[in-house]
């Protein structure tokens, strides 16, 4: 007996909306073509006359919150989709109406229990904020104002069903369109699915907010509401009331001096997040930032945050430094290190250098006169032209950075962005000159030498291939001796370099010891020995250079 595939009403609705906006070619020859009634194909001729990117945006808007979030994510992927689509998708607005059937009191009882519910002295029925996943309410507990974020009961089921259907349809679309297949949409969708499911779990948001709060607990520029741990679950997130005014409301009545302070604090805060902590608020639009009485920035909504590994922070620091220095070669080198794939070749490299040089001209202008739309379009053109596909972490960072810089310039058009950013780049550069930075470099070097132990094993494999007759080698004993001598000489110099590094670090640690004159003398001795070894090593290196210099 043949099993008949069944489809939910939502599945049929999605397919019919796709057909309505002229995307039936993706589905006609697929296994779900029978879901397309013939009468629908001729019903929407007027809509199909719109440009394809407009129809794509209209279809997403009609399909609701999950698709709108997907469209908003795509609007930041100029490395994957044409500029026309990016511009159109940026028009997407996540407008969500209040769920009248939502009973916040019942939800609190269900999650925390009757006894804990009784501790709330006030629960406002009108939500402070409404989103596709949850609603936020002002509450009071023991006379203290709090904010309670509550996930809608149907949110998880709705999102999970939409994700399942999108994945199913996406597989069909990939098979029917080579252009879409080239974008590697399944990888992109996997990342989107993880992000959206994380937003559904308020325990993850709680952890993010607690981490952010701990980093900036004593900051003069940045803060976040403290989480009330005992009132949090996967579906509830409770925190102290944000002590301040929403940024947009505050700016309307702020003085020029206050605007200047806020704009600078915003830039400083964000670069501190990425350069110092490698952990940042990934959706820092004005609606998610409150201004306190002492002009601190109070961030809310930590459903989406960015994490950077140490090596990622290093590469980003190098990229920013190269870009601000207007060095095209180093910018291209950084792009190659960051990109997942690219088509930068010897043949088109010169053309890319000229395009980057054109971008640098914007930096020389007064920031208040820079046509940011044009600048953004040029960046997107470069990314698409050279097929520069970026990792998700970098795209998330770029979006957040654009939001922060755009907001800062809107508040204070006369602000010198470069002046505010340069101290963090300098701090990144100077880190390698500190004792901690030297220690990190030394450890990297030691680990590199440790990994070098695999070299003999590689040689054994080569010798085994030679014995089997798979590699022909013509080399005499006399020819190998200089190679061995050079190899031994290099290892000796490397060893001396490590010893010098260890002496400098140990001496630096002893030199800063308080009330330890005897230990301080050892530090001086260490510096002297390191200096002698360093001088000897330098002389030896110069001797090698002149010894190996070819005769004319």
From TrEMBL:
TM helices/strands, residue ranges: 390-409, 494-512, 524-542
Pfam family, one: ABC1
Keyword Transmembrane: yes
Keyword Ribonucleoprotein: no
CDD domains: ABC1_ADCK3-like
Domain called Protein kinase: residue spans: 122-433
Molecular-function GO term, any one: protein kinase activity
Protein name according to UniProt: AarF/ABC1/UbiB kinase family protein
